[in-house]
Design a protein that fits this description.
The structure holds two protein chains of two kinds. Chain A is mainly β. Helix content of chain A is 0%, strand content 54%. In chain A, strands 2, 4, 5, 9, 10 and 11 form a six-stranded mixed β-sheet that branches. Chain A has a five-stranded antiparallel β-sheet with strand order 1-3-8-7-6, with no helix packed on it. The radius of gyration of chain A is 13 Å and the shape is globular. Chain A starts with a strand and ends with a strand. The mean pLDDT of chain A is 92. Chain B is mainly beta. In chain B, 0% of the residues lie in helices and 57% in strands. In chain B, strands 2, 4, 5, 6, 9, 10 and 11 form a seven-stranded mixed β-sheet that branches. Chain B is globular and about 35 Å long. The model of chain B has no long low-confidence stretch (mean pLDDT 92). At the A-B interface, strand 5 and strand 10 of A face strand 10 of B.
């Protein structure tokens, strides 16, 4: 079982719609969760992090965390062509092992 | 720009060459990291330095040798690499090992 699982995609979403990206993790000790965006040929860029169960909103982005079900998701509202990228989910234990464990990423394409 | 720079951006080397990758961060961070990103695989953490001391080494082959002379600079010395070492090598930094990480642009390495 992979430590962090993401659907590799590609996920195609019409412009203006909501894009929903999901991530599940196997380590119940995980405490902090991150979403990175990576454009083709570029390095990952942190866009959201979440530590507590529930929703966290930042502009068009909403991160959702459910520790009981061991999943974290990212919603992108009013999707734009510039949102087309690979989205990487990363998780970490807050104490003890500080290593960030990444998923393979979901490739998102916004269709104009 | 994230405040983390890497040189060179592209590197082609033969299996018998010795080369070094350089990373510099201008953020006043205390932790620095080397990651390897290969196609279709999750980001792999290679080395972690905190306050210039190595705190994690994820079973990386000895042909990769890190060096952290001060908290702003990180090197990855390469020798007798294999073609399967071809990948994007990313440097990252964070305020400390518990904070979010910011990535440099990466070095695209090709081993012939």
């Amino acid at each position: 079982q992979k430590e962090v699982e993401q659907n590799s995609g590609p996920l195609s979403v019409p412009e203006g719609a909501i894009a929903s990206l999901n991530c599940t993790y196997s380590d119940r000790g995980s405490q902090s969760f991150f979403w990175y965006r990576q454009y083709s040929g570029k390095s990952p860029e942190l866009i959201m992090f979440i530590y507590s169960n529930g929703d966290k909103e930042d502009g068009r982005f909403t991160a959702q965390l459910n520790k009981a079900s061991q999943y974290v998701s990212l919603l992108i509202r009013d999707s734009q062509p510039s949102d087309s990228a690979t989205y990487l989910c990363a998780v970490r234990r807050l104490f003890g092992n500080e290593k960030l464990t990444f998923g393979t990423g979901t490739r998102l394409t916004i269709i104009p | 720009e994230t405040g983390v720079t890497q040189t060179p951006r592209h590197l082609v080397m033969g299996m018998t060459n010795k080369k070094s990758l350089k990373c510099e961060q201008h953020l006043g961070h205390n932790a620095m990291y080397w990651y390897k990103q290969s196609a279709k695989k999750p980001l792999e953490l290679m080395f972690v330095y905190s306050l210039e001391e190595r705190v994690e080494n994820n079973s990386v082959p000895s042909r990769f040798s890190p060096e952290c002379p001060n908290s702003s600079h990180l090197f990855l010395h390469l020798h007798t690499l294999q073609p399967e070492d071809s990948a994007l090598y990313l440097c990252a930094s964070s305020q400390d090992i518990y904070n979010e990480q910011f990535f440099g642009p990466g070095t695209r390495l090709t081993v012939l």
